[in-house]
Amino acid sequence: MKLRKSHLRECGRFALEQRGFRVEAVSGQGILPGARLLTIEGSEQRKFAVRTSLDREVGLTRHPDGRWMTIPNVDEVVIVVPSAEDPGSAEVLGFDPEVLIRVFDEVLAGRKKRSPDISYKAPIFVALDKRSHSGAGAASGLKEKAQWQALVPYASVRSPDRSKAGLGFIERVKREFAELIGVDVSKVVVEFRIVG
Among 137, 155, 161, 171, which is most buried by a count of CB atoms within 10 Å? Predict the structure, then answer.
Protein backbone atom coordinates (compact mmCIF):
# COMPACT_ATOMS: atom_id res chain seq x y z
CA MET A 1 0.00 0.00 0.00
CA LYS A 2 1.33 3.41 -0.96
CA LEU A 3 1.43 5.80 1.98
CA ARG A 4 -0.70 8.89 1.41
CA LYS A 5 -0.76 12.22 3.21
CA SER A 6 -4.45 11.65 3.98
CA HIS A 7 -3.44 8.58 6.03
CA LEU A 8 -0.81 10.65 7.86
CA ARG A 9 -3.48 13.25 8.72
CA GLU A 10 -5.60 10.46 10.21
CA CYS A 11 -2.59 9.45 12.34
CA GLY A 12 -2.40 13.05 13.58
CA ARG A 13 -6.05 12.97 14.59
CA PHE A 14 -5.55 9.60 16.31
CA ALA A 15 -2.59 10.98 18.31
CA LEU A 16 -4.74 13.87 19.57
CA GLU A 17 -7.50 11.46 20.55
CA GLN A 18 -4.93 9.35 22.42
CA ARG A 19 -3.97 12.50 24.33
CA GLY A 20 -7.53 12.62 25.68
CA PHE A 21 -9.15 15.15 23.36
CA ARG A 22 -12.46 14.90 21.59
CA VAL A 23 -11.53 15.82 18.02
CA GLU A 24 -13.67 17.32 15.27
CA ALA A 25 -12.65 18.06 11.70
CA VAL A 26 -12.93 21.64 10.49
CA SER A 27 -14.00 22.01 6.90
CA GLY A 28 -13.94 24.96 4.58
CA GLN A 29 -12.94 26.18 1.18
CA GLY A 30 -9.42 25.03 0.32
CA ILE A 31 -9.01 22.92 3.48
CA LEU A 32 -8.01 19.31 2.88
CA PRO A 33 -9.94 16.75 4.97
CA GLY A 34 -8.16 16.37 8.32
CA ALA A 35 -5.85 19.36 7.81
CA ARG A 36 -7.68 21.50 10.38
CA LEU A 37 -8.94 20.04 13.62
CA LEU A 38 -10.75 21.35 16.64
CA THR A 39 -10.14 19.69 20.00
CA ILE A 40 -12.65 19.87 22.78
CA GLU A 41 -11.83 19.22 26.41
CA GLY A 42 -14.59 20.27 28.74
CA SER A 43 -15.48 23.84 27.76
CA GLU A 44 -12.07 24.53 26.19
CA GLN A 45 -11.65 24.40 22.42
CA ARG A 46 -8.32 24.58 20.58
CA LYS A 47 -7.59 24.93 16.88
CA PHE A 48 -4.98 22.66 15.28
CA ALA A 49 -3.34 22.69 11.86
CA VAL A 50 -2.12 19.29 10.69
CA ARG A 51 0.89 19.37 8.36
CA THR A 52 2.27 16.27 6.68
CA SER A 53 5.41 15.35 4.82
CA LEU A 54 6.50 12.11 3.19
CA ASP A 55 10.20 13.11 3.27
CA ARG A 56 10.48 14.50 6.85
CA GLU A 57 10.82 18.10 5.63
CA VAL A 58 8.06 20.54 6.50
CA GLY A 59 7.08 23.33 4.14
CA LEU A 60 5.16 26.51 4.81
CA THR A 61 3.83 29.07 2.36
CA ARG A 62 3.15 32.77 2.67
CA HIS A 63 0.49 35.30 1.77
CA PRO A 64 1.37 37.94 -0.88
CA ASP A 65 2.17 40.39 1.95
CA GLY A 66 4.75 37.94 3.37
CA ARG A 67 2.78 36.66 6.39
CA TRP A 68 2.79 32.90 6.95
CA MET A 69 -0.40 31.10 5.96
CA THR A 70 -2.51 29.21 8.53
CA ILE A 71 0.08 28.80 11.31
CA PRO A 72 -0.55 32.15 13.09
CA ASN A 73 -4.28 31.36 13.25
CA VAL A 74 -4.11 28.12 15.25
CA ASP A 75 -3.32 27.17 18.85
CA GLU A 76 -1.03 24.27 17.93
CA VAL A 77 0.52 22.67 14.86
CA VAL A 78 0.71 18.90 14.47
CA ILE A 79 3.32 17.60 12.05
CA VAL A 80 2.98 14.00 10.88
CA VAL A 81 5.73 12.18 8.98
CA PRO A 82 6.78 8.56 8.39
CA SER A 83 8.84 7.36 11.34
CA ALA A 84 12.58 7.22 10.69
CA GLU A 85 12.93 4.21 13.04
CA ASP A 86 9.70 2.24 12.53
CA PRO A 87 8.57 1.69 8.92
CA GLY A 88 5.09 0.67 10.11
CA SER A 89 4.38 3.89 12.01
CA ALA A 90 3.94 7.61 11.69
CA GLU A 91 5.76 10.06 13.92
CA VAL A 92 3.44 12.77 15.22
CA LEU A 93 4.90 15.95 16.73
CA GLY A 94 3.11 18.87 18.39
CA PHE A 95 4.48 22.43 18.03
CA ASP A 96 3.74 25.85 19.42
CA PRO A 97 2.94 28.00 16.35
CA GLU A 98 5.20 30.82 17.58
CA VAL A 99 8.17 28.44 17.71
CA LEU A 100 7.54 27.36 14.13
CA ILE A 101 7.16 30.95 12.96
CA ARG A 102 10.50 31.92 14.54
CA VAL A 103 12.29 29.00 12.88
CA PHE A 104 10.72 29.65 9.49
CA ASP A 105 11.41 33.41 9.79
CA GLU A 106 15.11 32.62 10.31
CA VAL A 107 15.21 30.28 7.31
CA LEU A 108 13.37 32.82 5.17
CA ALA A 109 15.83 35.55 6.16
CA GLY A 110 18.71 33.30 5.06
CA ARG A 111 17.00 32.59 1.75
CA LYS A 112 16.38 36.30 1.17
CA LYS A 113 20.10 37.04 1.70
CA ARG A 114 20.95 34.65 -1.13
CA SER A 115 17.93 35.48 -3.30
CA PRO A 116 16.49 38.91 -2.36
CA ASP A 117 13.69 38.63 -4.91
CA ILE A 118 12.36 35.26 -3.67
CA SER A 119 8.65 34.95 -4.47
CA TYR A 120 6.10 34.65 -1.69
CA LYS A 121 4.79 31.65 -3.68
CA ALA A 122 8.01 29.68 -3.03
CA PRO A 123 7.49 27.34 -0.06
CA ILE A 124 10.11 27.38 2.68
CA PHE A 125 11.25 23.98 3.96
CA VAL A 126 12.75 22.90 7.28
CA ALA A 127 14.03 19.36 7.97
CA LEU A 128 12.83 17.63 11.11
CA ASP A 129 16.08 15.74 11.60
CA LYS A 130 19.54 17.15 12.26
CA ARG A 131 21.85 17.03 9.29
CA SER A 132 25.56 17.61 9.04
CA HIS A 133 24.82 20.22 6.40
CA SER A 134 21.53 21.39 4.96
CA GLY A 135 21.14 21.84 1.26
CA ALA A 136 19.31 24.65 -0.50
CA GLY A 137 19.05 26.71 2.68
CA ALA A 138 16.78 24.31 4.55
CA ALA A 139 17.43 24.39 8.28
CA SER A 140 17.45 21.13 10.19
CA GLY A 141 16.64 19.79 13.63
CA LEU A 142 13.08 21.07 13.96
CA LYS A 143 12.05 17.87 15.79
CA GLU A 144 13.98 19.01 18.88
CA LYS A 145 11.60 21.94 19.26
CA ALA A 146 8.45 19.78 19.51
CA GLN A 147 6.34 20.08 22.67
CA TRP A 148 5.31 16.43 22.45
CA GLN A 149 5.79 13.37 20.26
CA ALA A 150 3.87 10.17 19.58
CA LEU A 151 4.39 7.09 17.45
CA VAL A 152 1.19 5.91 15.71
CA PRO A 153 1.16 2.54 13.92
CA TYR A 154 -0.41 2.94 10.47
CA ALA A 155 -2.61 -0.07 11.20
CA SER A 156 -4.26 1.75 14.14
CA VAL A 157 -6.08 4.12 11.78
CA ARG A 158 -8.04 3.43 8.66
CA SER A 159 -6.75 4.77 5.43
CA PRO A 160 -9.28 7.44 4.36
CA ASP A 161 -9.21 5.93 0.87
CA ARG A 162 -10.52 2.64 2.20
CA SER A 163 -12.71 3.84 5.09
CA LYS A 164 -15.91 3.93 3.01
CA ALA A 165 -15.41 0.34 1.88
CA GLY A 166 -14.75 -0.71 5.50
CA LEU A 167 -17.86 1.04 6.75
CA GLY A 168 -19.95 -0.61 4.02
CA PHE A 169 -18.67 -4.03 5.04
CA ILE A 170 -19.45 -3.43 8.72
CA GLU A 171 -22.95 -2.16 7.94
CA ARG A 172 -23.60 -5.23 5.76
CA VAL A 173 -22.41 -7.59 8.54
CA LYS A 174 -24.63 -5.80 11.08
CA ARG A 175 -27.66 -5.95 8.77
CA GLU A 176 -27.20 -9.63 7.89
CA PHE A 177 -26.62 -10.62 11.53
CA ALA A 178 -29.72 -8.68 12.64
CA GLU A 179 -31.80 -10.47 9.99
CA LEU A 180 -30.36 -13.86 10.97
CA ILE A 181 -31.30 -13.59 14.65
CA GLY A 182 -34.39 -11.41 14.18
CA VAL A 183 -33.47 -8.15 15.95
CA ASP A 184 -33.38 -4.54 14.87
CA VAL A 185 -30.07 -3.60 13.25
CA SER A 186 -29.66 -0.72 15.75
CA LYS A 187 -29.18 -3.36 18.48
CA VAL A 188 -26.18 -4.94 16.74
CA VAL A 189 -22.58 -3.95 17.49
CA VAL A 190 -19.77 -5.43 15.42
CA GLU A 191 -16.31 -5.90 16.89
CA PHE A 192 -13.45 -7.68 15.12
CA ARG A 193 -10.41 -9.07 16.93
CA ILE A 194 -7.27 -10.72 15.71
CA VAL A 195 -5.89 -13.37 18.05
CA GLY A 196 -2.74 -15.38 18.00
Answer: 137
